[in-house]
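Archive transcription. Copying these from loose printouts into the bound notebook so they stop getting lost. Printout 1 of 2:
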Amino acid sequence: MSATVAAVRVDEATPGSVRVSGELTFGNAAAALAVIGAAAARDGRSVLDLAGVTRSDSAGLACVLAVLAQSAERGHRLRVQNMPEGMHLLASVCEVEGLMA
């Protein structure tokens, strides 16, 4: 199953993984949170793969952190893979890298 919200695409075809591609920015973060969060909740997904994210900002980082928090509330650990360099740098500046490990 896959879904598209504005400039972000969510692909659940790989078992256990949610692959996100496109832009994850202020313009679509709220809608993307709903789609990514729903995908992460299905079938005990354990990996959030951000390899396809081409652009992100602070709202995109907040979206990823919210998805991780939602998973933790359900008692599931969601691991982030392939975080884009820009998001990684922003996470470092905001001192939230540890939340994404």
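Printout 2 of 2:
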Amino acid sequence: MAGGWSRDGAVHEQIEDSIKDELMRIQARQQPHGESLSHCVECGEPIPEKRRELVPGVTHCVECQQERDADLAQRGGINRRGSKDSQLK
């Protein structure tokens, strides 16, 4: 598929590397680490001790974390089919 100065399979390898990088970034963001905070960084409310024990490195209370998760779920993905409809989004 690749042409010119690139070797065969270079485009595919670049796509695969981009996907791996994105997956690692998402996993790093989803897995808290370190010491849990006693109060939420968003609203300042105390984080229950049971939550701090179960989720190491937690920084948000349940309500704020649910809002963050909902915001991430709304993020649209990339449609790589190249259709006209995907280019309009």
